[in-house]
Amino acid sequence: MAKKSKKQQQSGGTPATVALAAAGVTYAVHAYDHDPAHPSYGEEAAEAMGVSPERVFKTLVADVDGALTVAVVPVAGQLDLKSLAAAVGGKRAAMADPALAERTTGYVRGGISPLGQRKRLPTVLDASASGHATICVSAGRRGLEVELAPEDLAKLTNAVLAPIGRA
User: Fold this and answer.
1) Does pTM surpass 0.85?
2) Under DSSP, is residue 118 helix (H, G, I), strand (E, B) or coil?
3) Residue 7: exposed, middle, or buried by beta-carbon count in 10 A (0-12, 13-18, 19+)?
């Protein structure tokens, strides 16, 4: 993976890639042609990049006891809302209203990145991420992913690592 310069990012970067460049971490950008008819953004990304769905993570926004919270889980599984709530010390969790998630993060559904969000939200990264040298997450738009070390993602988002995904 190559480290992108600030100049490269400013010439067409997303808030996520700009944040990565500013942090100075090593990452790679993967672009692919997004098919609006595909039933799953995450599975489409895995297929298009030829990467195992266990290494491609989707970014979901949930409401935990009235507070928006970001969950980052493998596209191969689902988010366990009870586990997410427990990971942040909450009691109840439900998926957030998509329009509210878009307004709060500054990204569109299917392109929400855990990085470079308009408003920094509490973030939980599924513990399975630590089993991989690198993982892929949205770079801030449909058809664009970033690959980075899960430790770097956790550090940049102040994420808690917890088992919040289920098969």
Assistant:
1) yes
2) coil
3) exposed
Per-residue pLDDT of the chain (167 residues; tens, 9 = 90+): 444 433 333 446 899 999 999 999 999 999 999 988 888 888 999 999 999 999 999 999 999 999 999 999 999 999 999 999 999 999 999 999 999 999 999 999 999 999 999 999 999 999 999 999 999 999 999 999 999 999 999 999 999 999 999 98
Max CA pair span of the chain: 44
Decide: 28 and 146 in contact? Cβ < 8 Å: yes
* DSSP code for 3: P
Neighbours of 140 (CB within 10 A): 27
Q: What's the token pair of residue 121?
A: 């939200």
Angle between helices 150-157 and 15-23 (to 10 degrees): 100
**125 by DSSP, 3-state: which?**
strand
Q: What are the Cα distances from residue 32, in Å, to 35, 115, 142, 144?
A: 9, 19, 9, 6
